[in-house]
Amino acid sequence: MPPGTVLARFLHSLGVRDAWLPDTTEEAQVLFRSMVAGRRFLLLLDDAADPAQVRALLPGTPGNVVLVTSRAPLTGLVTREGATRVRVGPLLPGESCALLEACLGAHRVAAEPAEAGEFAALCGHLPLAIRKAAARVAASQQVSLRVAVDQLARARGETARRLFRDDPEPTPADGGKARRAPATPAAALADTDADSVFPG
Predict the structure, then answer these.
(1) d(CA 123, CA 128)
(2) pLDDT for position 157
(3) Which residues pair with 44 in a beta bridge?
(4) Distance between CA atoms of 162 and 12, rounded to whole angstroms?
(5) Angle at 71 between CA 87 and CA 57, to 5 degrees
(6) Tens-digit pLDDT profile for residues 136-154
(7) Burial of 19 by CB count in 10 Å (0-12 exposed, 13-18 middle, 19+ buried)?
(8) Please, are residues 103 and 131 in contact by the beta-carbon 8 Å criterion?
(9) For residue 116, which of 109, 110, 121, 139 is within the disulfide window of CB 3.0 to 4.6 Å?
(10) pTM listed for this prediction
(11) Other Cβ atoms within 10 Å of 129 Cβ, number
(12) d(Cα 98, Cα 44) in Å, to the nearest integer?
């Protein structure tokens, strides 16, 4: 989501009417910082893409806490803004199944416990990948977890092949640099439209 859109939502939550919203992201940033100055806020910025996206949303005065989640290292925030990086690993199998229960209902997971475990493992026990894949399954009561696991396994295999194809060895034409791709097929699934994994 562009920083300007996020800032507009922040300003709305602070009582700014549509007619008073600034025309540019820079003006919105100035207004947002002036409105939170001297106040205490906890900002949660989920799934940030890069440091620039986060910087535009940071308060300009002390007294606020900003919690950022991201699949990127965001090293620039650590070196320039003094952010503290906390690495969070994948969910434990039991936690993954609990998340699946929250998404699909305990009865569906209890009916196919082994398939639920396979489903979570194919998603790399990554919360975002599990939620996106489970959302499509939840939309159709006719799709069993067994069918979902088979479809997810095929999609994961295709994603793995695409990662190897799209992330070649460095060549002179690249300037010696290979293109960056998600580290694992499961991570790439988190970026995939669920409809493409579970068509129909």
Answers:
(1) 9
(2) 73
(3) 67
(4) 41
(5) 100
(6) 888 887 889 999 899 888 8
(7) exposed
(8) yes
(9) 109
(10) 0.65
(11) 27
(12) 23
Q: At what angle do helices 127-138 and 113-122 cross, to 10 degrees?
A: 130
In SS3 terms, the chain reads as: CCHHHHHHHHHHHCCCCHHHCCCCHHHHHHHHHHHHCCCCCEEEECCCCCHHHHHCCCCCCCCCEEEECCCCCCHHHHHHCCCCCCCCCCCCHHHHHHHHHHHHCHHHHHHCHHHHHHHHHHCCCCHHHHHHHHHHHHCCCCCCHHHHHHHHHHHHHHHHHHHHHHCCCCCHHHCCCCCCCCCCHHHHHCCCCHHHHCCC
Q: What's the one-letter identity of residue 47?
A: D
Residue 161's identity, in one-letter code, is R
